[in-house]
């Protein structure tokens, strides 16, 4: 495979960037190698959906916006494939229409540009210039479906692509089968984030069990599902480092060929919900509640 020389200014390198160098790009007029799925769609090389995606993807909630400090390393200008990019250095209005693609198993468990671990079953996205981390509302212009994603990676770097969605985000927008779709991407600004946080705090249910509450099955928090145990272990370590209070109750279970990062058990759905809310406030991810 030909050697590709690309310049990166700062710390903009991502798993997606690495994949483009592996795909055989020789110059700006070259094209990526595609594995065709159906007419009108495709995905890169050996990328694609997992072998056993969870059955409840439609139940995975959108990312919950929160105010987070921007990573300085991801605000520096950089170059990829002969193109120059100048990332936004603050949360500012952004609304653009273009083509969304998605990335899956090839990058699942790898490090993103923000230093986090990519989980194809979480509600995240990659964008060339939006601040990292930040939140965006993505709307499918053909069916009106909308999701909120946490932007934590760089890419895509093809001129006809606006944003790369996680597998779950693309699934919820109904663009999995075609491989891409036309969307509107709009940044979520601090004022709206504060309103969302205020609304969530007012609707949070009290923790605890009433004396006459009906007994429930034990509940768990699912943080991610991986086809490879090594990737699951990397993500487990990441969660344990970020949330030390979960270390005694979080681990890996295997089910239907997937290695799932689970925390629990919790005695009731309500207690699991409280733990999930705490995780979201501290780490800006929403774990899925599963009942045993």
Describe this structure in words.
The strands form 4 sheets. Strands 5-9-6-8-7-10 form a 6-stranded mixed barrel. The protein has a 4-stranded antiparallel beta sheet with strand order 12-13-11-14. Strands 1-2 form a two-stranded antiparallel sheet. Strand 7 and strand 8 form a beta hairpin. Mean pLDDT is 78; it is low at 1-15, 17-42 and 203-215. It has helices at 15-22, 167-172, 190-203, 229-242, 269-283; strands at residues 34-36, 42-44, 78-80, 83-85, 95-102, 124-126, 134-140, 146-153, 163-165, 180-187, 219-226, 250-255, 258-266, 288-291. It is an alpha+beta fold and 292 residues long.
Distance between the termini: 49 Å
How can the largest sheet be summarized? 6 strands, mixed, barrel
Into which percentage range does the β-strand content fall?
Answer: 25-35%
Number of strands: 14
Low-confidence stretches: 1-15, 17-42, 203-215
The pLDDT mean sits at 78
Number of helices: 5
Rg from Cα:
19 Å
Instruction: Please state how the strands of the largest beta sheet are arranged side by side.
Output: 5-9-6-8-7-10
Shape: globular
* Helical/strand content category: alpha+beta
Which assembly state applies to the chains in this document? single chain
- Report the helical percentage: 10-25%
H-E order: HEEEEEEEEEHEHEHEEHE
Summarize the structure.
The protein is of the alpha+beta class. The protein is built from five helices and 14 strands.
Outline the fold blueprint:
Blueprint: H1 15-22, E1 34-36, E2 42-44, E3 78-80, E4 83-85, E5 95-102, E6 124-126, E7 134-140, E8 146-153, E9 163-165, H2 167-172, E10 180-187, H3 190-203, E11 219-226, H4 229-242, E12 250-255, E13 258-266, H5 269-283, E14 288-291
Parallel strand pairs: 5-9, 6-8
Antiparallel strand pairs: 1-2, 3-4, 5-10, 6-9, 7-8, 7-10, 11-13, 11-14, 12-13
């Amino acid at each position: 495979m030909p050697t590709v020389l690309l310049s990166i200014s700062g710390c903009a390198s991502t798993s997606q960037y690495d994949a483009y160098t592996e795909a055989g790009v020789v110059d700006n007029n070259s094209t990526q190698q595609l594995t065709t799925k159906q007419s009108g769609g495709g995905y890169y090389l050996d990328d694609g959906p997992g072998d056993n995606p969870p059955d409840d993807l439609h139940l995975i909630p959108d990312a919950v916006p929160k105010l987070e400090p921007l990573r300085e390393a991801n605000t520096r200008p950089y170059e990829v494939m002969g193109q120059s990019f100048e990332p936004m250095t603050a949360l500012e209005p952004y609304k653009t229409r273009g083509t969304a693609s998605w990335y899956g198993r090839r990058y699942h468990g790898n490090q993103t540009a923000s230093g986090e671990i990519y989980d194809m079953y979480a509600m995240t996205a990659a964008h060339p210039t939006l601040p990292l981390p930040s939140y965006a509302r993505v709307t499918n212009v053909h069916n009106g479906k909308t999701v909120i994603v946490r932007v934590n990676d760089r890419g895509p770097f093809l001129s006809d692509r606006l944003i790369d969605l996680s597998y779950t985000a693309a699934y919820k927008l109904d663009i999995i089968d075609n491989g891409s779709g036309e969307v509107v991407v709009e940044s979520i600004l601090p004022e709206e984030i504060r309103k969302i946080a205020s609304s969530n705090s007012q609707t949070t249910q009290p923790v605890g069990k009433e004396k006459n509450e009906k007994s429930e099955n034990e509940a768990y928090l699912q943080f991610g599902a991986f086809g490879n145990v090594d990737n699951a272990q990397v993500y487990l370590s990441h969660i344990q480092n970020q949330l030390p209070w979960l270390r005694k109750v979080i681990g890996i279970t295997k089910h239907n060929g997937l290695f799932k990062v689970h925390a629990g058990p919790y005695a009731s759905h309500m207690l699991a919900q409280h733990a999930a809310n705490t995780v979201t406030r501290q780490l800006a991810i929403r774990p899925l509640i599963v009942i045993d």
